[in-house]
Design brief:
Structural class: alpha/beta
CATH class of the largest domain: Alpha Beta
Distance between the termini: 23 Å
Number of helices: 13
Number of strands: 14
Shape: globular
Strand content: 15-25%
Oligomer: single chain
Largest sheet: 9 strands, mixed
CATH architecture of the largest domain: Alpha-Beta Barrel
Helix content: 40-55%
Length: 345
């Protein structure tokens, strides 16, 4: 949890232990071992360690395209259980989790959907990660498209009431049922029965409906984290403005106890300068009424987020991009390419 510009509280669901996360093969985190194989180099309190990249990751299309799904790699090695590689994988997950906690995460989001195609392996992976994260004193956020994987994470937890489930929607009421049974918090999405919402009214109507469903299940407002859904502005130039307007309307209509947030960093997908764009969007979202978010607090340091000069050119360029005043970010991208945003992104 961090303090906002106005002195309020901002709850953080740290997003980094997600099986879709990638590193560049040519980046500083990937090293060539003496046998010619590639490994992930990471730092621990006891010194540097190397995580071997498993065959399934090395044979993937992402790897051929120059990317390493590093979280998926670690979890695959962990599930395989062969020492000493499994010990390295465990240490890698612990390193990621500690960084999130140190940066202010209240929960750590865990998603293993892309670790394997089969549900039994996903369930095993989720249970193992819950145990690792909780052993560090952190609270997991359980994220999966499969409710049985979330249920397995709940069973593995030593304190299910302290978890958060990500996420419920009108299409996924079973996740609400799990949250109600465990007495834990839940991310409640504004996704509709036919997919993503269109515009502000759809977001508000879907969000109010899922809140009504949660209330019927006796889930308290302060256990609900409403997600009006963030769509990348590179896809829809009005998406940022629609989210901000929906967040404001939901805060006004549902009161101060319910939490409003969601996957705020999604807004910058496909854009350069993501750190700056995400910083500004978090600040704008809080101003609109958000008080929580699924973000990476390591990349988006909250002291910097809420301390940025709103009158500065970098801030204004990002804000115009996010609110639709600069559709598709032509001015922002031009400034980025000209080097005007150096040091800000």
């Amino acid at each position: 949890m961090r303090t906002t510009r106005s002195g309020g509280k901002f709850l953080i669901i740290g997003e980094n232990i997600h099986a879709t996360r990638t590193l560049l093969r040519k980046g500083r985190h990937i090293v060539i071992l003496p046998d010619g194989s590639e490994a992930i180099r990471f730092e621990t309190p006891a010194g540097d360690r190397n995580l071997a990249i498993p065959t399934a990751v090395r044979e993937s299309a992402d790897f051929a395209a120059g990317k390493v799904k590093h979280v998926a790699a670690a979890v695959q090695v962990l599930v395989a259980g062969s020492e000493p590689d499994a010990a390295d994988a465990r240490a890698y997950i612990e390193t990621l989790a500690r960084r999130q906690v140190t940066a202010g995460a209240d929960w750590i989001d865990i998603n293993v959907d892309e670790v394997a195609q089969d549900a039994p392996t996903q369930r095993k992976a989720m249970a193992m990660l819950v145990v690792i994260v909780e052993a560090l004193g952190a609270a997991p956020s359980l994220d999966s498209s499969n409710a049985s994987v979330i249920a397995t994470g709940l069973k593995a937890s030593r304190d299910p009431s302290g978890l958060i489930l990500n996420s419920a929607s009108v299409e996924r009421l079973d996740v609400l049922d799990l949250a109600a049974s465990a007495g834990c918090a839940v991310v409640a999405s504004a996704a509709g029965e036919s997919g993503l919402p269109s515009g502000i009214d759809d977001r508000v109507a879907n969000a109010q409906r899922i809140v009504a469903e949660a209330t019927e299940r006796h889930i308290a407002p302060d256990r609900i984290h409403l997600d009006p859904l963030v769509i990348p502005v590179a896809v829809d130039p009005e998406a940022g403005a629609d989210f901000l307007a929906a967040a404001g309307r939901l805060r006004a209509s549902l009161g101060p106890d319910i939490h409003v947030g969601g996957g705020l960093s999604n807004v910058s997908f496909g854009l350069p300068g993501r750190r700056l764009v995400n910083d500004v969007f978090i600040d704008l979202a809080v101003e609109a009424g958000a008080d929580s978010g699924i973000v990476d607090p390591v990349s988006n340091d909250m002291a910097r987020v809420f301390g940025r000069d709103r009158s500065s050119r970098p801030y204004r360029l990002a804000a115009d991009l996010l609110t639709g005043a600069d559709p598709y970010g032509m001015e922002f991208i031009t400034a980025f390419r000209a080097g005007e945003l150096a040091g800000e992104v």
